[in-house]
Amino acid sequence: MNVQLFKTLWGHSGPYATAADQVVAAGFQGFEGPIPAGGPERAEFLEALSSRDLLYIGEISTTGFAVPDPGSTVEDHLEAFERILESSLEAKPIYFSSMAGNDLWSFAETIDFFTKAWEIAQKFQVRVGFETHRSRSLYHPIVTKNLLAELPPIELTLDISHWCNVCERLVLDELPEVLELISERALHIQPRIGYDQGAQVPDPRAPLYQPAVEAHIRWWKSVWKSQKERGFERITMTPEFGPDGYLQVDPYTEKPVADLWELNQWAGHRMKEECLAFLGE
Asked: Domain holding 131: CATH number?
């Protein structure tokens, strides 16, 4: 099995060339993030990918970034989804990951959005993993289960850390039927480690957080097994430890408790080793 690791551009500052050099040096295979809208920044982004022969997973946030724009409608989100998807095709993404929808919509509105977003993806003949993300439509395991029963065969980007935070526990241990369902729909994984009080443990290397690390590995084994059985030629993972309140800091000095790129390298290589060992490769 070809296990490929991607560097998240969330939290990276500086030139894209520097990020690309980090990808190569760490033994990762590409980027995941939004493509710049245009101008010199877009050209720099495309050059960083092509000159180092890196892969790309396109990121689509349907209004806002992590949190949707207040009051945004289904039509607003569909417009953003199609516009960003089409704009990103120049970078030749292997597929897309999308923070999509709004946790405040009605069930009917959410069904309408995902049905039409899936149709847009079919029109452009691309694969999209819709992310299990707080503030978005797939923010909760039971909500996701109920939606998937009514939707076309959408695929998922699994960031289970969000559900641990929303439900305030390592919740999938209590929901084996949901774990099986999402494993069968998983396109891509973002292996950040969540816990009861946050979507990101301060440092997954610390002994204090090993129960959470081991729980996530248990769940991802279900995903890896399903992906192998479904004939995936590659398993992709983007460790997504990030800034913006996710990374804990000293409240007085604002000094981070850890280095993000170190955390993401550790998480990526640990999960790749776990995956290959589990699949017997």
From this structure: 3.20.20.150
